[in-house]
Amino acid sequence: MNKLAYLKRVFGNTNHETAVWLYRKWVLSTFSxxxxxxxxxxxxxxxxxxxxxxxxxxDDDGNEHILEDTSPxxxxxxxxxxxxxxxxxxxxxxxxxxxxxxxxxxxxxxxVIAYPFTTIPYQPxxxxxxxxxxxxxxxxxxxxKDEAGYISVQQYLKYVEAVKYLTEFSHLFVISSTPKxxxxxxxxxxxxxxxxxKYKDKLDDYTVVAKIEDAVRKADEEYLKDDPTYGKxxxxxxxxxxxxxxxxxxxGEEDYSNPGHAxxxxxxxxxxxxxxxxxxxxxxNGVRMGSFSRGAETQKGGKAAKELLRVLNGFxxxxxxxxxxxxxxxxxxxxxxxxxxxxxxxxxxxxxxxxTKEIIEKRDGQIVNLxxxxxxxxxxxxxxxTCAGTRLTMKENELTLASxxxxxxxxxxxxxAMHGTVLSTVDVDPFELAx
Length: 435
Ligand SMILES: [Zn+2]
Fold this sequence. Notes:
Elements: H1 3-12, H2 24-31, E1 49-51, E2 54-58, E3 64-66, E4 82-84, H3 85-88, E5 100-102, H4 103-114, H5 129-136, E6 142-143, E7 151-152, H6 153-167, H7 170-173, H8 186-198, H9 206-224, H10 236-248, E8 251-254, E9 262-265, H11 277-312, E10 316-318, E11 328-331, H12 337-340, E12 344-346, E13 352-354, H13 357-362, E14 367-370, E15 382-384, H14 385-393, H15 399-418, H16 430-434
Parallel strand pairs: 6-7, 10-15
Antiparallel strand pairs: 1-2, 2-3, 4-5, 8-9, 11-14, 12-13, 12-14
The structure holds zinc ion.
Zinc ion (ZN) is lined by residues 322, 324, 376-378, 383-384, 386-387.
C-alpha cells in the first residue's frame, strides 16, 4: 500500500470511537523513529511498527501490509510531506482552502477543527489558536444545539480536549534550535556598519537610530526567512528585540545628561559592549531603569484593578435599551468576531442592529457607530443590555470580574515594556490625529 492510500484510510475514518489519528501511539509510531521492543503486536488497525522491510500494519479486515517507501532509519511520515487537501480531508472546506498543503497542517485541522466542530472550515497554514478563537469561537457564539455559525458547549469541550492532545506532540514537531537561530546575519552586520558610517554625525538622533535598527531587523528577517523556526519559535519579541540586541546591534539608549537625545551603542551583545564610558553608562542606566521600573510599574495594574473593583462593585446589566444617542466610531474587523458578536450598532437610518457572525462578515472593514457601556444612560448602578452586549449580559453579576481585563492590559503593557521595546518610526497624518 502506498502512503496516500494509507492516509486516506486513516483520515477517512470519521468515527471518533475508532479513528487512529486520535491515538498518541499512531502519531508517535508514524511521525518519529521508534523502536518497539515487543514488536509483532498489531492490535489496532493501521497502527504498526517498523521492520527491516518497512512499516508493517494491519488493515480493518486484519490483513497485514507493508507501507511502501518506508525505512527503519526514517520516520514513516513527516509534517512537511505535501498532499492534496480534498483527498485527505473529508470535512468542511471553503474558497480559502488551498489545493495542496503540508501534512502537518492537515493533521492539525483534523484534530483541532474537524474533530470538535462541524461548521468551521479548513484553516490554511499560518493559523493559530488565537486567530481561530477570535474568528470562530467565543462565548457569544455558544449555543445549546448544533446550528450553522454557532458552536455548542459539547463541541467547545471537545475542542479543549483536542488542543490538549495536540500539545503532547510539541517535542516531535517544534524545532527550537537551528544553526541560524544561534548566529548573526552577516548581511545585517554589514548594513549596520554602512549606515553608522553614513550617519556618523547624527547618531544621537532617535529617528536615525530607529532607521538603523529597522534596517538591521529587516536584514535579520531576510536571513531567517527559510529557517524552520521562523514565525514559530523565532517571532515577536524574540525576533524584534532579543535577536536584534544579541546579534544585530545593542541599539539606542536614553542619554540622561542630554534629554531627548540617544546614545547609540553600535555593537551587539555577541560582539560585546565597547569599553567606552559614555556607552557603558547608557547601557547600565537602561538595564537599571528596566529592573527598577519592572517592580515600580507593576503597581499601575494593581491601582487600575482596585479602582475598577470599587467603581463597578454592585453594577449589573439590566434588560432593555437605555435609549442613549451616543456611540463610538468603530471599524468592523471580522478577525475580531469574538469581541464584536452580540454588540449593537446604529446605522445611518438610526436602525439598531445586533451584530451576528453573518453581519460582521458582511460589514468587514466598515466604520460603524457602536453602542458601548461608556455612554449608557441606564439608571443607578446598571448598564442596559443593548449597551453592554451579549457577552457582558451573560455575566450580568460578574461585571467587576470582566473589568479586570482592562487592568490586566495595563499590567501586561507595563511588564512588556520592561522586556524591551522596539524603537521605530511611523508616518503620522496630523489631520487624522485632530479628527
Ligand atoms: Zn445603555
